[in-house]
Amino acid sequence: MMSRGPFAGLLGRRDECRALDDLLAGARSGRSGVLVLRGEAGIGKTELLNYVFEHATGCRIVRAAGAQSEMELSYAGLHQLCAPLLGGIDNLPEPQRDALCTAFGLRGGDAPDRFLVGLATLSLLAEAGGDQPLVCLIDDAQWLDRVSAQTLEFVARRLLAESVVLLFAVREATACEPAAGLTDLPDLPVTGLTESDSRDLLDSVVTGPLDHRVRSRIVAETRGNPLALLELPRGLAPVDLLTDGFVRTDARPLSSQIEQGFLRRVRALPDGTQRLLFTAAAEPVGDVTLLRRAAARLGIVLDAAVEHAEASGLITFGTLVRFRHPLVRSAAYRAAGPDGRREVHRALADATDAELDPDRRAWHLARATAGPDETVAAELERSADRAQARGGIAAAAAFLDRAAELTPDPARRGARALAAAHAKYQAGAYDAARELADAAELGPLDELGAAQSTLLRGQIMSASKSASAGLPLLLEAAKRLESLDARRARETYRDAIYAALTAGRLPKGGILTVAKAILSAPMPAEPTRDDLLLAGLARVTTEGYAAGTPMLLEALVAFRTDEVSREEGLGWLPLACRLAHSTWDFESWSVLSAGLVDLARETGTLSVLPSALLLRLSNRVFAGNLVGADSLVVEATAIGEATGSRFFAHYGALVVEPWKGREPETQQAIKAITQDLLLRGEGKVVTATQWAAAVLYNGLGRYEEAYAAAKRGCENPQELGLYLQSMVELVEASGRLGKPEDATEAVRTIHDMAQASGTDWALGTSAMVRALVSDGQAADALYREAIERLGNTEVRTEFARVQLLYGEWLRRGNRRADARAHLAAAYDMLSQIGAEAFAERARRELQATGAKVRKRTAATHETLTPQEAQIARLAGEGLTNPEIGAQLFISPHTVEWHLRKVFSKLGISSRREIRTMQLEGEATSA
Q1: Average pLDDT of 323-331?
Q2: 152 FRET partner, CA 20 to 30 A, in 649, 714, 738, 842?
Q3: Are 813 and 825 in contact (CB under 8 A)?
């Protein structure tokens, strides 16, 4: 594939080389770049990687390659890429360093969160690119182990200003090959050569005469595939090149034809050389020393075998063993046959150090074993434990799956199959998890095992279909666990009722069924706060709000004032926060949501952090800190971007934007959430989106639209939370439309709930809504009560709003002087909060009283983007660039890049000056 000119070296790849040169130029100027080369086998992706390798002058280069036989070994591909960079691991923040060391098996510890490993990888690559640009070349990325691929995709989404290039080569999926991930990343399809270039390449390898019809047929059938053009003529006899012997039809895929050609060449080699290639094909790392030890065990005369192998052009032996192309490896592995493959895997297992690499040894043993073998199964089970400790759930599942297959004892086989099913579920392989659960139940599971199997099936159904689909199984499992494992039963009931709250309206088997089951379970003589929380919610559901609220408030006080362990906090605080909102306990909501965010951040539990941030930002909205809520949206969005999910950004906007009075942004969030296929059918979607619309339209003074939205938001009282807030919006809209009778039921419900709750937030809200449907002195007294009670709370948004409502009522009663004081207070507070539409209502009302009011001008820092503002706030609090990057899932170099833009926009030159800007917001959760 040689050519001349500025892109010399690759025939017919001028455009591709130009794109790769641009990537390298960007890295040299401080920009990061990501590109995925996609194409069929043999199309030239590896040659393009080699082009970058040869032209990346002044850059540091690291390489890795996926291997089909290593797809089950967690972090194998990532470790291969990062191994040359591990000298810089001590420069990482401690949580990141510990996570990466644990993932790579360099030290023991709790299983690291995979996103924390991703952040550590991002930091490691950014650190390595600090002195000179770093170029990472990853070949055959479709064969990376799952967690490595996910980690590198995470990193690719977060690169910006680190002088790092990530270049992947991915084979297009076929019917018998996996579809590659790395979705939504910039890609470059690598297609076939032109007919002219194909003829030139073919002529370069066919040295003798070539019939023009044969040439045309080879060019047509290879469709410009360079490897096919180079290899297929090797299988033709000289006479075929001169006649129409090649003019035949082969229906097999081109990659299969190429592999078949390699297979013929492997089988033409001497016996010892073939066995050496078989062994090399079964050893994916390319470890020359290991291969030599295995060859010795197989009795291969190594020097002669290596000489013949290299002469064939199929493989090279240097620092590493490298096949000419992955299709050569697969052809050699196929050529070995079942008995031959078991023989070489046994030799490789014997040659692998059991202390240094026990998992790879166990995997070779498993491949070498034809029938049940408890010794090998036990070894695989130990490997699964190690993989799980490193966070390699997919690898653990594969080890356990094979261990179950090799287990002779039926009872032990069932237990291992169940463990494998649970690991497959955790890895997101729901169909495989279901099949393994079926296999487990064929064995004699004991009573606890059967209950755990039912629980697993419920979890699989909830995750793969919907919250409602898994509910019956979760309930059945909880009941079976009551007498076997009380703690697990309680946690299962918790998950079931949380799922029911999320599912919302269900034709049958919803939250009422779960609540009844919880109440039928025995209550301990000395119930814990967990017991009280569950029982209280169950009583609210079955007997009414007043029956369960005292238990909920007691549980919330215990959660707020007593120490909460990591495990309990991550498991129970999400529900506790939700119920603090529903019981109008603002203090508990504030304290517990802050604690949950801090706990999720400190432990790196990114499976919990996004929902924790959403619970916290809702609290901050009611606290009147919209800028702080925006900063939490930035953080939640950063996680969503890193994982390819836009849900967090949309839900954050759904909570924040209505209060700002921004109709396009609110409607966009509503549309995105209602059209999200993963949320389809869940009742909470209707409640949340309609509450948001009602807030928006009440703020804008469009009360008919607010009324219609609020009515829909009030349709499911068992959802609590935003259902309660929808009733508040309904009362205001009804009152302003002159039909207070439509709000009678809502006012009565809020008042009854407030009496049960007894908090100033609840009682103040009750007084406010009753004032909205009252007249004369009764209304006046209720407004004053609402102002007094809400003024005692931190619910600033509601306090400002009641000032507005009272001022509007006074102005309509022609009490202008009294109205002016309350409207001015409302205008000041609502403007500071950022509730623009409500503030504009207050401004118009103030003008109607004869007061002169100027619109507030935007502060300087409002020119910052939300992410810039968040970074500025964190820097102003004294956080270092690595600490800011860790919180926002970006590299320290990207933090520095954003800070330079902040300095320019604010007209400052140091971090110290940021503190004088008085940027509002919530840099921490406190």
Answers
A1: 84
A2: 649
A3: no
DSSP string covering 173-216, please? P-TTSPPP--TTS-EEE--PPPHHHHHHHHHHH--S---HHHHH
Q: How far apart are the first and last CA of the chain?
A: 62
Can you spell out the DSSP letters for 738-754? T-GGGGHHHHHHHHHHH
Place of tokens 């300087």: 860
Do the beta carbons of residue 245 and residue 237 sit within 8 Å? yes
Per residue in 177-212, pLDDT (tens digit) is: 444 567 778 999 999 999 888 888 888 877 666 667
CB neighbour list of residue 907: distance below 8 Å, 6 or more residues apart: 860
Dihedral through CA 196, CA 197, CA 198, CA 202, nearest 10? 110
Q: Which pLDDT does position 769 carry in this prediction?
A: 95
Whole-angstrom distance, CA of residue 358 vs CA of residue 875: 45
Structure tokens at 906: 């604010």
Q: What is the per-residue pLDDT for 125?
A: 93
Our CA angle for 490, 494, 500, nearest 5°, is 140
Contact 27, 33 (CB under 8 A): yes
pLDDT at 8 over 70: no
CB atoms within 10 A of CB 910: 9
Does pLDDT of 603 surpass 60?
Answer: yes
Nearest to 871 by CA among 879, 863, 638, 159: 879
What integer pLDDT is reported at residue 104 of this predicted model? Answer: 86
Contacts of 756 (CB under 8 A, 6+ apart): 545, 546, 549, 550
The Cα–Cα gap between 564 and 156 comes to: 36
Long-range contacts of 609-614 (CB under 8 A, 24+ apart): 609/639, 610/636, 610/639, 610/640, 610/648, 611/574, 612/573, 612/574, 613/639, 613/648, 613/652, 614/648, 614/651, 614/652, 614/655
Q: Which of 173, 169, 172, 218 is nearest to 193 (CA)?
A: 218
pLDDT value at 786 more than 50? yes
Map tokens 């009844």 to a residue. Answer: 516
Average the pLDDT over 855-872 and give the result.
65
User: Percentage of the chain surpassing pLDDT 90?
Assistant: 44
The answer, yes or no, to whether residue 604 has pLDDT greater than 80, is: no
**Coil, strand or helix: which one is 38?**
strand
Assess contact for 467 and 502: CB atoms under 8 A: yes
Would you say 889 and 639 are in contact if contact means Cβ atoms under 8 Å apart?
yes
pLDDT by residue (tens digit) across 544-600? Answer: 999 999 999 999 999 999 998 888 888 899 999 999 999 999 999 999 999 998 888
3-class DSSP state for residue 56? coil
Q: What are the strands of the beta sheet with 187-189, ordered from one edge?
A: 60-65, 134-139, 164-171, 33-39, 187-189
Question: Is 211:244 a contact under the CB 8 Å cutoff?
Answer: yes
pLDDT band of 262, cuts 50, 70, 90: confident
Q: In angstroms, rounded to a whole number, what is the distance separating the alpha carbons of residues 118 and 121? A: 5
Give 554's Cβ-side CA count (13 Å radius): 16
Residue 652 · residue 637 · CB < 8 Å: yes
CA distance 552 to 549: 5
Q: What is the pTM of this model?
A: 0.70
The answer to whether 480 and 458 have CB atoms below 8 angstroms apart is no
